[in-house]
Amino acid sequence: MMIRKLFFAFLMMACLGACNDDDDSRFGVPTEFRDIKFKPIPGGAVMRYYLPDQKDIFGVQVRYTDAWGEKQVKNATYLSDSLVLDGFTEAQAAVPAQVTFFNRDMEESEPMEVTFSTEKSATVAVFDELVVNPYWGGFNVIYDAPYMVNGMIHVFYIGTNPLKHEPDSILVSSIPISEGGDTLNFVLQQSMDFVDVVVRTDSYSGKFVKQRIIEKLPCLSMDTLRGIDFDLQFTGTIVENEEYQFGMQYLSDGDKQGVNYWTNLRNGDAEKYSTFMAGPEAFWDAEEPEQNRFIVDLREPKVPAAINLYAFLYYKGKYAYQWIDDPYLVELWDGSYASRLPSKVKIYGTNEDPKTVSLSSCTLLHDVNSGKEFTESWAHLTDEYSSENINIWGYSGSWKNKTKKEIEAADPVVLHMLCNYSGEKYRYLIMIVEDSFIGRWGSAKNIRQYITINELEVCVKEENK
Fold first, then answer.
1. Residue 300 is inside which H or E element, if any?
2. What is the pTM for the complete model shown?
């Protein structure tokens, strides 16, 4: 009942607001109601007022003109004590407004002439510290935003229209502005040496606010390092076993698809994995921050481009879990390959001692959290039963039955982690793994925190570009 009454009250206030200013039903405003304060906020102001419920004043109304020249009317009742006046872009001072009050008979008071100031809106503030950097095969957009956000940010680049084969602006992102700011990375589908980028903001209602064009931004190229061109270590426990072919040497041997394991499977050696595994307790933990760091030593400072983590293709391999299996392998696998793959990873850059430097003083280059479900992640086609693998291969098929040439040509199962670009060079990259996936049917949860990676690939900025 109260909601219905308020609805009709607001309706009447809105109708009265449209009445002629000469309406002789207006009444004077008591002095205690005239103490109105305004606080500037991004994109507008907050008006604070006080309407004691024992008085005859029911509501308040404010009329003003917004940044687009449109008349705005804002209403509120005695049930509140503040009203947001929005619709502004640039910061303004002394915006004129009229404030009137309504009594319980819905009679409007004489207008009070007031002014208020506004702060610049998020749709304008993003351009204050906007940076558009070259990126790996594309570009990235970095912006700051205030604590209150309103509006959209749109990013275009000037490329070739695939239908008309003519230059055209191609939209790559259209999202709400993030509180505090954001970093947006874009890899272009079209091969370009240079790119023109357009960043535009609109209000939520679609009104244009501001735009900036960045011309001839170079697209970065990267080199993939060979395993012999960098040094790699892990500061936690590594599984080393010749019988089952676990060891550090398999982490950078160039075998992306797991061809070595496929060869063992074809030869009947299903328990020779030719891969890397760390654990137990291999996840990074803030309580022991110097443990469980993957450290890449580039031997000299270079601009990092990417770290890529590869996993086995779908081979229907053997991952021990039954009491009849070797207890050692049951401990390592618990019947699930996917449950040992990284799902939450961070990469840092530093020129300090990578074993002892605080990660908080390093530069965060990449941060990914793929969630717990491998079927919805980069690992969805890895060596684990799933509806997608069964749809592709049926219940009996897999890559195991293909030729070596076919496997080497297959798209790998890979987590691509492109590094944020600033142009800074680092000698050391630190990668930490904070979680892994849940295995098939949720049966394997990796309580002992093992990690497997078939291949770790390192890429740096191409020096001659």
1. strand 294-302
2. 0.71
